[in-house]
Amino acid sequence: MKIHIDVDCTPEEARTMFGLPDVKPMQNALMAQIEERMKKTLSAMEPEALFSMWLPAGVQGFEQWQKFVWSRLTGGKDEESAER
Fold it and tell me: What are phi and psi of 50, to 5 degrees?
């Protein structure tokens, strides 16, 4: 024997009927925190911010590489030792 019962109710009514807690306020708070973190992360990903972070170190590293190569090509005499 089969018994089939259809219950037409909203999710809130079903939660109440089964005694489950309402987690909507907690979910809203967590989603607000996630949204805030994502906004902070995305603001750091703007092209201007990325260039300002990467460019100075990249230029300095490139200048050091140039000095190293130039010192090897000139027989180990770099600009600093030539000034002494």
Answer: -65, -45
Q: What angle do CA 72, 75, 76 make, to 5 degrees?
A: 65
Instruction: State how far the Cα of 43 lies from the Cα of 50, in Å rounded to an integer.
Output: 10
Please choose, from the candidates 30, 31, 13, the residue with its C-alpha nearest in 3D space to the C-alpha of residue 22: 13
Using a CB cutoff of 8 Å and minimum separation of 24, what contacts does 44-48 make?
none
How far apart CA 71 and CA 68 sit, in angstroms, is 5
Q: How confident is the model at residue 61 (pLDDT cuts 50, 70, 90)?
A: confident
Rounded to two decimals, the pTM is 0.42
Nearest-Å Rg of the Cα atoms of the chain is 32
Query: pLDDT tier at 76 (50, 70, 90 boundaries)?
Result: low
